[in-house]
Design goal:
The complex is a heterodimer of chains A (155) and B (492). Chain A has 155 residues and is of the alpha+beta class. Chain A is 48% helix and 28% strand. In chain A, helix 1 runs antiparallel to helix 2. In chain A, 27% of the residues are buried. In chain B, a hairpin with a 4-residue loop joins strand 10 and strand 11. Chain B has a 7-stranded antiparallel beta sheet, sandwiched between helices. The N terminus of chain B is likely disordered. Chain B is globular. Chain B is 43% helix and 27% strand. Chain B has 492 residues and is of the alpha+beta class. Classes of the chains: A alpha+beta (155), B alpha+beta (492). At the A-B interface, strand 4 of A face strand 18, strand 19, helix 14 and helix 15 of B.
Chain lengths: 155, 492
C-alpha cells in the first residue's frame, strides 16, 4: 500500500481555505437569496442551499487539512491533495521542469504560499498549497537545486 | 551537429519567388469582405472615379508582395531562424535538435506552382499563430531536402549523422480503396446519422405522424413510404459525404519509414497534399482508436504518442486513418517495434469497477423513469412518455455492458496498456520509460469500494493516460512494477 506523504501543510491553511469557502458561499448564497426574494422562488431551496453551504464552510477546510500532505525525497516529489475527491501525485526529480513559488492574495493574509512543481506533461503539475512562507521558500530552493543536479531533458 | 548541413546554408534565404503569385491572391481573398464594403461605398459616392477600388485591390496585393520581401530564413549554428514582419519584426529561432516533426502541406494553388509549405513542429506550448515556424512556401524538392536536413539534425543518436547515406524508404502501409467502407462508420458519419434521425422525427412530429385519431389508411401508408425513402436517401447522402471527406483527406495515403535517419513519413490528401514526418526517438507509444462504429465494421484508427506534441496537434500524429483492424495492428507493431503489448491480454478491473459502469450508465435514465412514472400516476400524463426513459435505460444498459467489457489494463515488457470507453473506445500503449509521473485519483465513492483511477502522465499525446477504476492495490502494483525506484520509497 502507498503510504501518505510525510509532511502536513501549515495549520493556518485551514483558515485560508475557510476564508475562500466563505467568499464562495456568500456569492452563491447571495445569488440564490436574491433569486428567492426577488423572483418568488421557493424558500425551501434557499434553506437547503444555506444548510449545504454552511456545512461546506465548516467541513471542507478540516477535511482538506487532514488530506493535504507532501513529501520531497532525493529522487521524487509526492503530494496528496483534495477532500471529497483525493489525488496523490508522484513525480521523479529527474522529470521536473520548473518550480514555482506563489503567494496568492488570500494566502498572503495568512503568511502562506504555495509551491508548484511542473513536469513536461500538462497533466503532471504537483501543487503544494498552504505552506508556511519561509518553509515554502526553503523548499523551492531545495527542489530547484535537486532538479538541476539530475541530467536529462525531462521528457 | 551543424557539420552535417551542406555549406552555403548560412545565408538568409527567401521563400520561393513563385509566392509572389500566391500571397497577393490569398491576401485579396482574406480582405474580400472588406473589399465588398469598399466597392459598395465606392459605387455609392460615385463621381470620385475608381480610386476606392484601386486602393482596395492594391493594398492587399502590396501587402502580399511585402510579405514575400520581408520573410527570410536560415539554418546556422545548429539553429533555424525565421525573420518576418515589416512594422513589427519577428525573429523566431529554435535549436535544430528541438525539431519534433516536419509537415509539408500543399494546397491546390501550391501544387499547380510546384510549391510546398513547411511547418516545423517544435512542441512549443504557445498556440499563437505568429509563434509557428511556417515557411510558406518552398519549391517541393527544396522542401523535401530541408525536411531531411531538419530531421537529420534532430536525430539523437550519433549513427544518424551520416548525411551521404542514401534515403532508404520502406513503405509500411498504403491506401487501399476498400478502406472507404469505414468512412460512414467514423464518428462524424454516425453523428450525421443521429442528426438525420432527429430531424426526421421532428418533421414527422410536425406533420402529426405520431398522433392518434385521424387514421386515414392511405395517408398513413403514403407517409410511411415517404419516411422510408427519405431515410434511405438521407443515409445514402451522408455515406457519400463521409466517403468524399475520407477521400479528400486520405487519398494516396502512405506511411513509410526511412531507417537511415530513423523517421516516419506520412503522406495523404487528394487536393491538398500533406506530408508529415516524425522522429523515431520521440515516439513514446501509440493510441488505437476504436469508436463503436468502426468496431462494428472491424476497423480502427491509429495515432502516435509523440513527445513534445500535445492534443491540439494530434492531427499531425495520425499513423493510419480508419482501416481494417489487422492493418492497424500490423502498423502499430512496426511503429513500436514489438507485438507483445498489442497481444497482451488485458486484466479486467473486477466487479466493483463493472458495478460503477452500470450505476453511472443507468442512474440518469432510472431517475427519469421514476420522475415520469410519478407524472403519469399523479398528473395523468400519457403513458407513451414512458418510452423515453425506457429507451434511455436500454441504451444505458448497452453502454454499461460495452464499457465494462472495454475496461482493462496490462503491463508487459515495459509497456503500459490501458483501454476504456465505448462510443469512443481507445486502447493506449505507452512505454513506461516515457512516463514522467503518476497520479492516483479517487472520489469518496471510489475509495468506499476500493477503487482508484491510475493516471500515467507523459510529455506527448493527450499528456495523461488513465486506467479507470482499478482496484487500489493493483494500481499501486502497476506503478511499482513500471518504475520501482520511484514508487518503492513511498510504500509503507
Amino acid at each position: 500500500m502507498l503510504r501518505e506523504p510525510a509532511e502536513r501543510v501549515s495549520p493556518r491553511a485551514r483558515w485560508m481555505w475557510t476564508l475562500g469557502a466563505v467568499i464562495r458561499s456568500l456569492v452563491l448564497g447571495g445569488l440564490v437569496g436574491a433569486w428567492v426574494v426577488a423572483g418568488d422562488g421557493p424558500v425551501a431551496v434557499l434553506i437547503v442551499v444555506l444548510v449545504v453551504l454552511v456545512g461546506y464552510v465548516i467541513v471542507m477546510p478540516q477535511w482538506r487539512f487532514r488530506v493535504h500532505r507532501w513529501e520531497a525525497t532525493q529522487t521524487a516529489v509526492y503530494t496528496q491533495t483534495g477532500w471529497w475527491a483525493r489525488e496523490q501525485r508522484i513525480a521523479p526529480m529527474s522529470r521536473i521542469q520548473t518550480v514555482d513559488y506563489v503567494e496568492g492574495p488570500v494566502a498572503r493574509l495568512f503568511g502562506l504560499a504555495s509551491v508548484t512543481v511542473t513536469t513536461a506533461s500538462a497533466a503532471g503539475a504537483l501543487a503544494i498549497e498552504g505552506l508556511d512562507k519561509d518553509r515554502a521558500r526553503v523548499l523551492t530552493d531545495e527542489l530547484t537545486t535537486r532538479a538541476d543536479s539530475v541530467a536529462g531533458d525531462a521528457t | 551537429m551543424t557539420d552535417v548541413l551542406p555549406t552555403g546554408q548560412e545565408d538568409w534565404q527567401r521563400l520561393d519567388r513563385r509566392m509572389l503569385l500566391v500571397h497577393p491572391i490569398k491576401e485579396v481573398g482574406r480582405f474580400f469582405p472588406a473589399l465588398i464594403g469598399v466597392f459598395i461605398a465606392g459605387s455609392q459616392t460615385g463621381g470620385d472615379g475608381p480610386w476606392f477600388e484601386i486602393v482596395g485591390v492594391a493594398l492587399p496585393i502590396a501587402y502580399g508582395v511585402l510579405r514575400f520581401y520581408t520573410t527570410r530564413y536560415r539554418i546556422a549554428d545548429g539553429r533555424i531562424e525565421l525573420r518576418r514582419g515589416l512594422l513589427t519584426k519577428h525573429v523566431l529561432s529554435t535549436q535544430l535538435d528541438r525539431v519534433r516533426t516536419v509537415d509539408l502541406t500543399s494546397s491546390p494553388i501550391h501544387r499547380i506552382l510546384g510549391l510546398t509549405t513547411v511547418r516545423i513542429g517544435t512542441g512549443t506550448a504557445s498556440t499563437k499563430g505568429e509563434d509557428q515556424l511556417d515557411l510558406d512556401s518552398l519549391p517541393t524538392a527544396g522542401a523535401q531536402q530541408l525536411r531531411y536536413q531538419l530531421l537529420h539534425a534532430a536525430g539523437t543518436s550519433g549513427e544518424r549523422a551520416d548525411a551521404s547515406a542514401p534515403l532508404v524508404a520502406r513503405t509500411v502501409v498504403r491506401f487501399d480503396p476498400s478502406w472507404l467502407r469505414f468512412a460512414p462508420l467514423t464518428s462524424a458519419g454516425l453523428v450525421s446519422f443521429a442528426a438525420i434521425a432527429g430531424v426526421t422525427s421532428q418533421i414527422l412530429n410536425g406533420v402529426g405522424f405520431f398522433d392518434q385519431g385521424h387514421d386515414i389508411p392511405g395517408l398513413k401508408a403514403a407517409l410511411w413510404l415517404t419516411v422510408t425513402v427519405g431515410i434511405v436517401l438521407g443515409l445514402a447522402s451522408v455515406s457519400a459525404l463521409a466517403i468524399v471527406g475520407y477521400l479528400l483527406t486520405n487519398w494516396d495515403f502512405s506511411l513509410t519509414h526511412t531507417s537511415t535517419d530513423g523517421s516516419w513519413h506520412l503522406r495523404r490528401g487528394l487536393l491538398t497534399t500533406r506530408e508529415t514526418s516524425m522522429d523515431d526517438g520521440r515516439v513514446r507509444g501509440v493510441a488505437v482508436g476504436e469508436p463503436l462504429g468502426l468496431r462494428l465494421g472491424r476497423g480502427a484508427r491509429l495515432s502516435a504518442i509523440v513527445t513534445g506534441l500535445d492534443k491540439k496537434q494530434q492531427g499531425t500524429t495520425l499513423l493510419v486513418p480508419p482501416a481494417p483492424r489487422q492493418v492497424v495492428d500490423r502498423v502499430a507493431a512496426e511503429v513500436i517495434g514489438t507485438t507483445t503489448p498489442l497481444e497482451a491480454v488485458l486484466t479486467s478491473h473486477g466487479p466493483a469497477a463493472i458495478r460503477r459502469r452500470w450505476i453511472r450508465a443507468l442512474a440518469l435514465p432510472l431517475l427519469l423513469l421514476v420522475g415520469i412514472g410519478a407524472l403519469i400516476v399523479f398528473d395523468d400524463a400519457s403513458a407513451w412518455w414512458l418510452l423515453l426513459p425506457l429507451l434511455g435505460v436500454a441504451v444505458g444498459a448497452g453502454l454499461a455492458v460495452d464499457r465494462a467489457r472495454s475496461l482493462g489494463h496490462a503491463l508487459v515488457d515495459g509497456w503500459l496498456v490501458v483501454r476504456s470507453g465505448s462510443l469512443v473506445r481507445r486502447r493506449e500503449l505507452l512505454q513506461t520509460d516515457g512516463v514522467i509521473g503518476w497520479n492516483l485519483r479517487s472520489t469518496y465513492f471510489q475509495r468506499r469500494v476500493g477503487l482508484t483511477t491510475l493516471v500515467a502522465t507523459t510529455a506527448g499525446g493527450s499528456q495523461s493516460y488513465a486506467a479507470l477504476d482499478v482496484p487500489e492495490a493493483r494500481a499501486i502494483e502497476v506503478a511499482r512494477l513500471a518504475q520501482p525506484q520511484l514508487i518503492e520509497q513511498f510504500l509503507g
